[in-house]
Known about the structure:
Elements: H1 2-14, H2 24-50, H3 55-69, H4 73-88, H5 94-119, H6 123-131, H7 136-166, H8 178-188, H9 193-224
Helix pairs in contact: 1-2, 1-8, 2-3, 2-5, 2-7, 2-8, 3-5, 4-5, 5-7, 6-7, 7-9, 8-9
Amino acid sequence: MLELIQTYWVYFLVGQYPNGALGGLALTVLLAGLALVLALPLGLLLGLARVSPYRWVYWPATVFVFVLRGVPLLMVIFWAYFFLPSLTGHKTDQFSTMLMALVVFDSVYLAEIVRAGILGIPKGQVESARSLGFSYLATMRLVVLPQGLRHMLPSLVNQFIATIKATSLGYIIGLTEVSFIAAQINTQVFTRSTEVYALLALSYFVLCFGLSRLAFWLEQRSQARPLKVSA
């Protein structure tokens, strides 16, 4: 395996970059990070809508979340790659397609994380804020969300881990993420498939295990430190 790493480590990490498109492990992390960052505002809005007292806000968001959660990510990728170009007349590249699919898919799971974080705040705090004259939006912005978002951090890291693993589905549409690169390396040294895919599994494990320990540290830190709420 050491010989394999010495020969292909650059290709495994960054693909053909800088002489070609970025790929490999770098593309996997970049894609997952961008997807989570772009999905967070949408997930926050959906999460707020899921706890809204207004039915005209609550029901459309709830239907959207339940429909997307009931559909495999692979189907969302296929819709973005084959169905959307037929509607718009413009075909997107593999990276943009996978990014759009992950943003939409991540947003519904982030919405449930936000919803759980909001519902985890004691009702007495919300009632106290409303009795002091705060509007519903001001209560959410100044009282609920500052506390809820801090408690959501471990779950957000866990969602990032799930997104990293989900990027491997980009292989289906030819995206040169790390599993696609591993498959290409395997075609060049097809007698060493075990070593190639063991290296791929080890890469995922090291990356995801490190992030899981970060999530654990954030959880411990959030429990140890009291929060000062803005007023």
